[in-house]
Amino acid sequence: MSISSLFKRKGQSANHASGEARRGASPRRLHEGRPCITLAAQWGSRGEPAGHRLAARLGFTEYGAEILGILADQSKVHRDVLAALDEDSTVNFNYLVSSLLGNPYVVAEDFARDLVRVIQQIAEAGDSVIVGRGAAFALHGPRVLNVRVIEPYQQRLTRLRESRMMSYTEAEITLAEIDSARSQFVEDYFRRDIDDPEAYDLVINAQFLDEDAILDVILRAFEAKRLAG
User: Fold this and answer.
1) For strand 144-150 and strand 202-205, is the pairing parallel, antiparallel, or unpaired?
2) d(CA 85, CA 38)
3) What is the bridge-based pairing of β-strands 144-150 and 36-41?
4) Which pLDDT does position 26 carry in this prediction?
5) What are the average pLDDT values for consecutive 10-residue runs of the chain, which has 229 residues?
């Protein structure tokens, strides 16, 4: 099944799709086939670069913001519109003006439905690292490793201030907005808590770890789970 076949225009099983999204998506269990890693790293943590490095080390394809590109190409919705529904967006709305935009997404639940399907299709193809987008809540099973990287608030705040040349207050506001947006994204689309440890195979506190150590821990867990499965 091609990725393009995952998309349905409004009116096609709309009631079922919206009901499914309101209940939260059921994670797809991955059995045999090529492996997949999902990575959810707190914003400003040392885990953020891990997706790119994991993909490079394993020869996998990384998917993060690229998922929005797939959605935009196939649904004919402008990427800026989809970005307003993405995990880092601080825009708070449910309804899009389809008469002006000419798009299939009348409510945010339509976006959630197609997002989950694209994530699951990418995972089925395997050899992928999926960054963010609540992927851990859409996938589980012996050939997917769900990883979360956290770090103490003050360390993330300091890193943000230094990298963006922000004042303490500006950094506090920015970090609070992004943390809240990501948490709300998972709550809205998956009916789950982003910090629920049961959603992940591995939760890493990076307080005393550098990027190399984080990568090594993830790779060791990845290989251990593959052998166990």
Assistant:
1) parallel
2) 20
3) parallel
4) 59
5) 34 37 56 84 92 95 86 65 58 41 55 84 92 92 94 94 90 91 86 93 96 96 86
Residue 122 CA to chain centroid, in angstroms?
A: 12
Task: Give which of 62, 38, 50, 48 is closest to 138, Cα–Cα.
Answer: 38
Structure tokens, 142: 């012996």
Cβ-based neighbour number of residue 136 at 10 Å: 27
Amino acid at 138: A
In the chain, where are the structural domains located?
A: 30-228
The number of beta carbons lying within 10 Å of the beta carbon of residue 160 is 19
Token pair for residue 45? 């943590």
DSSP conformational letter for 6: G
Please state at what angle helix 108-125 crosses helix 168-190, rounded to 10 degrees: 80
30-228 CATH fold: Rossmann fold (3.40.50)
Please report the pLDDT score of residue 32 as a whole number.
59
What confidence score (pLDDT) does residue 141 get? 87
Q: Tell me which residue has tokens 């409004």.
A: 10
- Tell me the C-alpha distance between 172 and 158, whole Å: 10
d(CA 177, CA 142): 34
pLDDT digits (tens, 9 = 90+) for 75-94: 666 556 566 556 655 444 44
Query: What was the pLDDT predicted at 192?
Result: 92
